[in-house]
């Protein structure tokens, strides 16, 4: 349950209320009733014992007590508390955090920023989710990554100087009616690069064809396993043909001797051969049949997480490589085992 910080939008958003609520937005709406001043959520901390932390904070700011749970403190005084919470600390981020407000002398765009009451570097706070774990630069990908929302980006898509580059992006006239609708209403879809959209669209078509021609219109984990066992027995498995795709997923889900933070996001269930997939990803199990089964279980989970809405949790960002490799697997399987014209 979160401990929240809500301020009155006057005198630098002070005083500030420190309280506990399951639904912060609902609590803020209730507090706003009868209050002539606009209330603003400053941030919150997710913690197991919220009431204990609330008591500690009330005691800490006891000398500034105004009334009830309100204290004569400023946003700058709660920021260190939020930052110490790290992965459990969040600021209420600006809706327009990426709004360009000017350019420096090198013509590099300057943005509004993630928090209204202070400047936070991306190493301190993720501008996508407001988590104070920050974003950390990965040498391998040359991109920035957030542990909380799993965003991986180099921010190049946010630079308005790139808007005029001919990168194959669709124009308004080339968008279908459904894409125009998605751009207007689906969270993050407008920021999704054209190539990312293409590989996800292609995956939907390829999976449909895979399910029709390989799975006889009914894909399940046990039926996928049965297909692989049949290909193993008749000598048509060809697991070596998928080494590139397997290597990609192994690097994504296992590094430095341990499973990466990406692996739990697959949301593998026991029926998805969780143990086998983990063994293959870790390199403990390298038999052709199990490598192929693990690879298709990963593709299966990408399919389920996409179609069941999991991928929208981070607005479909940074999924291009996942679905590009999944598409390669499906195309090769269809070429070897499908009934293509």
Provide the helix percentage.
25-40%
What Rg, in angstroms, do the CA atoms define?
Answer: 24 Å
> How many strand elements?
13
Q: Describe the biggest sheet? A: 6 strands, antiparallel
* Strand line-up in the sheet with most strands: 4-5-2-1-3-6
Q: How would you state the average pLDDT, rounded? A: 86
Q: In whole angstroms, how far apart are the ends? A: 56 Å
Total helix count? Answer: 10
The parts where pLDDT drops under 50 for at least 5 residues are: 163-173
SSE class: alpha+beta
What is the string of SSEs from the N terminus onward? EEHEHEEHEEEEEEHHHHEEHHH
Q: How many independent structural domains?
A: 3
Beta content? 5-15%
Shape: elongated
Descriptive account of the structure:
By secondary structure, the chain is an alpha+beta fold. The protein has three domains: 2-91; 100-162, no CATH class; 177-337, no CATH class. It has helices at 24-32, 50-60, 75-84, 177-185, 194-213, 221-234, 243-253, 274-282, 288-307, 320-337; strands spanning 2-8, 16-20, 39-46, 65-67, 70-71, 89-91, 100-103, 109-111, 135-138, 143-146, 152-153, 254-255, 258-259. Helix 5 runs parallel beside helix 10 (320-337) and helix 6 runs antiparallel to helix 9. It is elongated and about 80 Å long. It starts with a strand and ends with a helix.
């Amino acid at each position: 349950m979160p401990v929240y910080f809500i301020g009155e939008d006057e005198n630098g958003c002070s005083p500030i209320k420190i309280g506990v609520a399951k639904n912060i937005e609902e609590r803020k709406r209730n507090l706003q009733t009868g209050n002539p001043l606009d209330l603003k959520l400053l941030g919150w901390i997710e913690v197991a014992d919220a009431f204990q932390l609330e008591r500690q904070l009330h005691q800490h700011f006891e000398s500034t007590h105004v009334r009830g749970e309100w204290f004569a403190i400023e946003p700058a005084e709660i920021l260190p508390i939020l930052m110490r919470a790290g992965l459990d600390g969040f600021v209420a981020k600006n809706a327009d955090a990426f709004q360009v407000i000017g350019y420096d002398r090198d013509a590099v765009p300057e943005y509004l920023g993630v928090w209204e009451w202070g400047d936070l570097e991306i190493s301190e706070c993720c501008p996508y989710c407001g988590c104070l774990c920050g974003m950390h630069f990965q040498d391998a990908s040359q991109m920035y990554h957030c542990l909380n929302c799993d965003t991986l980006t180099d921010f190049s898509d946010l630079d308005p100087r790139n808007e005029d580059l001919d990168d194959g992006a669709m124009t308004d006239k080339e968008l279908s009616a459904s894409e125009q609708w998605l751009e207007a209403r689906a969270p993050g879809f407008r920021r999704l690069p054209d190539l990312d959209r293409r590989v996800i669209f292609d995956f939907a078509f390829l999976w449909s064809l895979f399910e029709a021609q390989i799975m006889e219109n009914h894909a399940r984990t046990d039926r996928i396993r049965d297909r692989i066992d049949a290909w193993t027995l008749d000598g048509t498995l060809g697991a070596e043909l998928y080494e590139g795709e397997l290597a990609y997923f192994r690097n994504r889900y296992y590094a430095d001797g341990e499973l990466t933070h990406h692996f739990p996001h697959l949301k593998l269930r026991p029926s998805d051969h969780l143990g086998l997939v983990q063994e293959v990803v870790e390199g403990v199990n390298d038999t052709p049949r199990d490598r192929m089964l693990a690879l298709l279980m990963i593709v299966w989970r990408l399919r389920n997480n996409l179609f069941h809405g999991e991928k929208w949790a981070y607005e479909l960002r940074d999924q291009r490589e996942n679905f590009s490799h999944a598409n390669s697997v499906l195309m090769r399987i269809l070429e070897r085992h499908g009934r293509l014209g």
